[in-house]
Input
Amino acid sequence: MPGRTSPRIPSPFFLPAEWERHDATWIGWPHNSSDWPGKFAAIAWVYAEIVRRLVPGERVRVLVNSAAHERRALGILRRAGIGLEDVEFFRIPTDRGWTRDFGPIFVRRSGNRGGEIAVAGFRFNGWAKYPNCRLDAAAGHEITRRLGLRYLPVQAFGRDVVLEGGAIDVNGRGTLVTTEECLLDPQVQPRNPGLTRRQIEQLLGRALGAAHVLWLGRGIAGDDTHGHVDDLCRFAGPRTLVLCRESNPHDSNYRPLEENWERLQDARLEDGSKPEVVPLPMPAPLQFQGRRLPASYANFYISNAAVLAPTFNDPNDRTALGMLAELFPDRPVVGIHAVDLVWGLGTLHCLTQQQPAAAPPNPSPKICP
Output
């Protein structure tokens, strides 16, 4: 890559795997009622249940727009009987609550001087779709400033590189998985027009310590992000991937998911070994006003105390929870009702962002058997 396309970020920094120890989980308390038409009143109680499951293992840092917004959130949490000792509020205005995508992507320094937490400075542009994203785009900078962390700009050709957290997933060892639909499509919701596949790979390697990229094809139906990988494929361990598969050949997700499955049959990890690929079922299609919703069990979130997995009042809920329980034997898998939540076109992973601990207690966590 020519020098001018290299991000100004030290190479020792890397994005830890989600199952590694967190210092905190960030969420943005809901306030944009247009994201959940007709369901907004119920959404705060879903957030309260998420906080209840997070606080036994880590701090929860909550973005609110104002003092009044904070009071409303506190009222819900208290009525839900949740202890607030490990809940912190940050009055940083946002446009929406999808913290995974606009929030900071926290990276950690490795090597002999390892442990420092910094922020990989990608830009958020509303998924190259929604113009009302000014507050969201500024939130990551403000969080970084409040925490006193280093902000490491990621740039190419003098421009900030666009990346959302939901577009990628990593194993913390040097391999990243993403989709061509999201990062390479030059016409529909283009994030970084003009950058080639190779240039994007090199940027991800320098910024996130992911020198090896696995490219899937398309995302799932109903996803307004145009192909976020956290709705279809996730790392469940250093050598294990879960990939959604659709059993109904007439469903619109069937062919794209089968093509992604075929791609992973020949995939290799950073050390040249083949990953274990575990099929994860899909729930039956959910619709809102004639529109397909992106309901997926892959949108789980790995916290210190539990794996939070979305459920959809579907027969496959039990199957998906059981499979995830086998993959994460060191922490419980907890189902979170997400039928209302997915009306906002995202669920648990979309609304959370992990802040890794500065020094993991075990540099080689044994998550998978």
Observations:
- The longest helix spans residues 40-54.
- The chain has one domain: 3-356.
